[in-house]
TrEMBL record, chains A, B:
UniProt entry keywords in alphabetical sequence: Ligase
DNA/pantothenate metabolism flavoprotein C-terminal domain location: 2-225
SUPFAM superfamilies (UniProt xref): CoaB-like
Phylogenetic placement of the source organism: Bacteria, Bacillati, Bacillota, Bacilli, Lactobacillales
GO molecular function terms attached to this record: phosphopantothenate--cysteine ligase activity
Superkingdom of this protein's organism: Bacteria
EC number: 6.3.2.5
EC primary class: ligase
NCBIfam families: coaB_strep, PRK06732.1
Name of this chain's protein: Phosphopantothenate--cysteine ligase
Length: 227, 227
């Protein structure tokens, strides 16, 4: 089976030296890749510079991306040639459009005027006491996967922070339906520590709990090969 | 000699999953540490998780920091017990104070009202088409060094992007005087590539050019031991 995994977190540049990053170590992606390779599958890992990665080995191909635009360009092609996509990457929801001194915001009658502006400098200057950064939503990657390959098996991820269990599962199920995914791995940042990673593999009808990254990888492997 | 080096780039958290990062690989800090250790000095390296680091060895101590607040807390103590500080870290100029949907900005009569607000959520929600992030200046670390230790030899760094040479040297010299530094290493991002790193070691009276990271390290070493 040809399995595509995304891991790590995207970064959206503010200027040539600063970026908004989504913090993600890539550990789960690395463990999934290793377990799937061991089971005899071909793995393509789309990840980021700072994410941890498996050692080079046969049947493993690694692509490195930076921002959402490069993620989309890379996935659009790869999704067509894979049987499964496990999309565990932490993808930026917003990307910077314009950064201004606070004073500029106070001079405009409608702040929406600033949404149309773009920075000309390559390194935005830093004299003002306060700055304001305008951001716009990035295109949702996961919602396009099934359009690019209607036959792919799609496992999405949903990370929330410190929410009741019912809410976590409900939000995961909404994502499942909206993005035509086969499963969503729902997890809460409060349940992720060095040797514990509680996750719930949610389908339309069930939710199965796993307690470590290895358990999550094993559970996903069973589901994608059994179904 | 006890030499303190900072390297890598700080990150300022927006919420529990996103941060504004200053991109810096830490390569120059690593090379300086290695060359100074080889010359028989004691090196303390204050760096970040994603920065490259020298191998563990005797006479090398590494501290890991994240944001400007943790950098200040760490340096405040270390500066007192070192003879030299080489401050090559890319330090965040601004830190997030409040992130809001764009609609909230359009409802207030004075945008300054939002500077006093704080996000209550641990992961800021992402429904709106546009968001706006308010930032405030971080305390300038370099300007406090000589207050903490009047006897320390201070080498600061100034990175600009695609400016004329005269401007680069002028800005470095302003920083030298303002921060009571002994030298400023002035460099332009356009002159930094894989095997080239043009830098100018600027004092009140001279500017000496170096062409690689190794040259920069060697030049700084000569100056701090000769003076």
């Amino acid at each position: 089976m040809k399995i595509l995994i995304t891991s790590g977190g995207t970064s959206e540049a503010i200027d040539s030296v600063r970026a908004i990053t989504n913090q993600s170590t890539g550990s789960l992606g690395k463990i999934m890749a290793e377990i799937f390779l061991k089971a005899g599958h071909e793995v393509t890992l789309v990840t980021t510079k700072n994410a941890v990665k498996p050692a080079e080995q046969s049947r493993l191909t690694i692509y490195q991306i930076t921002d959402v635009a490069s993620l989309i360009a890379t996935l659009k092609t790869l999704v067509k040639s894979h049987d499964v996509l496990i999309h565990s990457m932490a993808v930026s929801d917003y990307t910077p459009v314009y950064m201004a001194d606070f004073a500029e915001l106070q001079t405009v009658t409608d702040p929406a005027q600033l949404l149309a502006k773009r920075n000309q400098e390559t390194k935005i200057s830093s004299q003002a006491e306060h700055q304001v950064l305008f951001l716009t939503k990035t295109p949702k990657v996961i919602s396009q996967i099934v359009e690019w390959n209607p036959n792919i098996k799609l496992i999405g991820f949903k990370l929330l922070v410190d929410v009741p269990h019912e809410e976590l599962i409900e939000v995961a199920r909404e994502s499942l339906i909206k993005n035509k995914a086969d499963y969503i791995l729902a997890n809460d940042l409060k349940d992720i520590q060095a040797h514990q990673h509680i996750g719930y593999l949610v389908s339309k009808t069930e939710e199965i709990r796993a307690n470590t990254k290895e358990d999550i990888a094993q559970l996903i492997l069973e589901r994608i090969t059994d179904d």
